[in-house]
TrEMBL record:
SUPFAM superfamilies: NAD(P)-binding Rossmann-fold domains (SSF51735). Signal peptide: none annotated. This is Gfo/Idh/MocA family oxidoreductase. Residues 387-396, 405-426, 458-485 have a biased composition (Low complexity). Transmembrane segments: none annotated. Residues 296-324, 373-505 are annotated as: Disordered. GO terms for molecular function: nucleotide binding. PANTHER family: BILIVERDIN REDUCTASE A (PTHR43377). It comes from the Bacteria. InterPro entries: Gfo/Idh/MocA-like_OxRdtase_N (IPR000683), Gfo/Idh/MocA_Oxidoreductases (IPR051450), NAD(P)-bd_dom_sf (IPR036291). Residues 5-128 form the Gfo/Idh/MocA-like oxidoreductase N-terminal domain.
Length: 505
């Protein structure tokens, strides 16, 4: 009989409550929730009451959790880290105890930051990190290469329509976000997050560039790259990139790439705040076959992916369709159980996270260069980019150390995109760049800021740090909608939320 794994849930934000905790409770035969960690007293209490976690199993920080493990008052076999994106310090603390960790992307914002984890894991001689990309473990994705082999692959076309949070998380039972942390703590967290993003995007990036990097690339396109990599391997070369509409963040992003085999990959990610539903489709072509996947959002736990295949045999077109037996989130947790119990290697870990952040930084550089600018800090005095860089010069100097300084455990999934925007003060007027050529001015309703992020304190009212550039709807990837709408509240910390509060994440 499979071992029951004792799990510490670190971060009780939207992704934890909408994706991870429901699976852990349903799969009581494989997992026990041994502890819950969250820096917000209110959310820690409310989430624990909803999910049945006793008072003695609740902790404020990862340091408190590890102290209990050392004192042998708590037994933890593994952890899920679904905090606000400042993962590295907490992750390394867990890894030093030999604890395997399922991490909500992004693992970090810069190659230097992620390399700390990859280097430490390499020194331990065994994998300890698994990235929480549920759809990498989806049954339909796992079978793609069975139907169209890598050697026969001609083209992969992957498109995502990302709405605001309500269609993604409205059906989940998520407790409200809360602003119960002291102002100085929230302020320091914003500075730490801003420093990490500046280190990843470059001193010459404008605030809009940084928002695009986090809200569009690290929590949107990164998910699509992960699906392609699970089936056919990583993108080896960039061919072209574009971003539109001009000035809208994150807007729409298109990436053309090439696999090692020469097969082409097209990734298109749209943030459409008023879209009625989430949509994700993957089309795969070979000389003889056409395959189409429909992938539901991981937060829709009872939804199943479908895989359709069309081919011609003996002059007759034949079509087959199959439905996955389980949701992608549950399949991911089964894979994590095998990772912890048997050492089965995950699809993506620290090394893959490092390669991914390096490629996405290259994508951002291409978008910015198409706008006639550079991510290097060589702008003329008075530039918006220069102002952005100056605003966090002291923090950027030690961005690597700051990523995760808040002992622990920011509480939400994916990164705090809105928090970063606030930390920067006012938004620059420069539009986000486009690559290739691009269209028209967007309709007013598309000027909303998106993507799930998930930390209430990072998404504190704009008045505290300055107005946000583009207000977003009360939904998954926008500014906080108020405590009246729990799902919107959580996800409004758009960065994840990936995993993608993100996208999950």
């Amino acid at each position: 009989m499979p071992k029951t794994v004792n799990i510490a849930v670190i971060g009780a934000g939207t992704m934890a409550q909408a994706v991870h905790l429901p699976v852990l409770r349903r799969r009581w035969d494989r997992f026990t929730i041994a502890a819950l960690v969250d820096h917000s007293p209110r959310r820690r209490r409310e989430a624990s009451e909803v999910w049945g976690i006793e008072e003695e199993s609740r902790y404020e920080t990862v340091a408190d959790l590890i102290a209990a493990i050392r004192a042998k008052t708590l037994t933890v076999d593994a952890a899920v880290l679904s905090t606000d994106g400042l993962h590295v310090d907490d992750l390394l603390a867990l890894m030093r105890r030999g604890i395997p960790v399922l991490v909500e992307p992004p693992l970090g914002y810069s190659a230097e930051e992620v390399a700390k984890v990859a280097d430490f894991e390499r020194m331990t001689g065994r994998p300890l990190v698994m990235l929480a990309y549920p759809q990498q473990y989806d049954d339909s994705v796992a079978r793609m290469a069975e139907h169209i082999a890598v050697k026969d692959l001609r083209m992969v076309d992957h498109e995502v329509l990302m709405p605001a949070s309500q269609p993604l998380f409205g059906q989940a039972h998520v407790t409200t976000s809360s602003y119960d942390l002291p102002t100085e703590v929230r302020s320091q967290r914003r500075k730490d997050l801003q420093a990490a993003v500046v280190a990843g995007s470059g001193d010459g990036a404008t605030q809009r560039d940084r928002d695009l990097y986090v809200k569009g690339l690290l929590t949107g396109v990164a998910h699509q790259m992960a699906v392609t990599e699970a089936a056919y391997g990583p993108i080896a070369r960039l061919v072209a990139v574009r971003h539109w509409p001009k000035g809208v963040i994150p807007g729409s992003i298109e990436l053309l790439g090439e696999l090692e085999t020469g097969a082409q990959v097209r990734l298109v990610w749209h943030y459409l705040p008023f879209a009625p539903e989430y949509s994700e489709t993957v089309q795969v072509l070979s000389a003889r076959r056409r395959m189409r996947l429909e992938l539901p959002a991981p937060s829709h736990g009872d939804s199943r992916s479908t895989l359709g295949l069309r081919e011609k045999k003996s002059g007759v077109v034949q079509e087959t369709s199959t439905t996955a037996p389980k949701g992608s989130a549950e399949l991911m947790w089964e894979a994590f159980h095998a990772f912890v119990d048997k050492g089965t290697a995950p699809v993506a870990g620290a090394a893959q996270a490092l390669a991914q952040v390096e490629l996405l930084r290259e994508v951002l550089a291409d978008i910015v260069e198409a706008d006639g600018r550079s991510l290097e800090a060589d702008e003329e005095p008075g530039d918006d980019a220069g102002a952005d860089g100056a605003a966090s010069t002291a923090d950027a100097a030690d961005a690597e150390d700051a990523a995760g300084t808040d002992d622990a455990a920011g509480t939400d999934d994916a990164a705090g995109a809105d928090g970063v925007a606030e930390a920067a003060g006012e938004q620059p007027v420069e539009p986000a760049a486009e690559t290739l050529e691009q269209p028209v001015e967007p309709a007013p309703e598309t000027l909303e800021q998106p993507v799930p992020v998930e930390d209430a304190d990072l998404a504190a009212p704009a008045a505290e740090d300055g107005p946000a550039a583009d207000p977003a709807p009360a939904a998954e990837a926008s500014a906080p909608a108020g405590e009246g709408d729990p799902a919107a509240d959580e996800v409004s910390d758009a960065w994840a939320e990936s995993a993608a509060e993100r996208p999950r994440d």
